[in-house]
Automatic annotation (TrEMBL):
One of its GO terms (molecular function) is DNA binding. Keywords: Cytoplasm, DNA-binding, Transcription, Transcription regulation. This is MarR family transcriptional regulator. It comes from Ramlibacter agri. One of its GO terms (cellular component) is cytoplasm.
Length: 150
C-alpha cells in the first residue's frame, strides 16, 4: 500500500487501501473462526464477551457490563436473559435500588471458563502470530478505537 502522502485520489478510493475494510474483513474472518469454537460452548459471540467480562470480575451491574462491552441495555438485557435461561448466570435486583441489577456467574458459568480456555489458543494457532505480535496488534487496534471514539 502506498503511504498516505503518495496516495492519489484514485488510490485513496481503492478497496485494498481502506483500513475500514481491512478491519471489517478481519472481523468476518475472526467470527468465522470463533463460531464452531463457541458453538461447542453453547455461546454466541456477544454471550462469550459477556462471559469473558464476568470471568474477570463476577457480580457486576448490568450498566457496568454495558460500559465494558459498549452495549446498551436494550441489547444487553436479551443476551443476559438467554445466559440466565442457559443456567450460566443469575440476575439479582439490588435490595436498595431495584433499578440496579447485579449479574453473577452460576457454578455452571464458572465451570464453563475451563472449557473456554482453548479459544484463545485456537486464535493464536490460526493467526500464525507470536503472542507478542498479537499483544501489540491488540494494543494498536484498541488505541485506534479509543482515538476514533474521542
Amino acid at each position: 500500500m502506498a503511504t498516505p502522502r503518495t496516495l492519489s485520489p484514485d488510490q485513496a478510493l481503492l478497496l485494498d487501501n481502506q483500513l475500514c475494510f481491512a478491519l471489517y474483513s478481519a472481523s468476518l474472518a475472526m467470527t468465522k473462526l470463533y463460531k464452531p469454537l463457541l458453538d461447542e460452548l453453547g455461546l454466541t459471540y456477544p454471550q462469550y464477551l459477556v462471559m469473558l467480562v464476568l470471568w474477570e470480575g463476577d457480580g457486576l451491574m448490568v450498566s457496568e457490563l454495558g460500559q465494558r462491552l459498549s452495549l446498551d441495555s436494550g441489547t444487553l438485557t436479551p443476551l443476559l436473559k438467554r445466559l440466565e435461561v442457559a443456567g450460566l448466570i443469575s440476575r439479582l435486583r439490588d435490595v436498595h435500588d431495584e433499578r440496579r441489577v447485579h449479574i453473577h456467574l452460576t457454578a455452571a458459568g464458572r465451570k464453563l471458563k475451563a472449557r473456554a480456555a482453548k479459544v484463545p489458543h485456537c486464535l493464536l494457532a490460526a493467526s500464525q502470530c507470536s503472542v507478542p505480535e498479537l499483544v501489540q496488534l491488540t494494543r494498536q487496534v484498541r488505541a485506534l478505537r479509543d482515538r476514533l471514539a474521542a
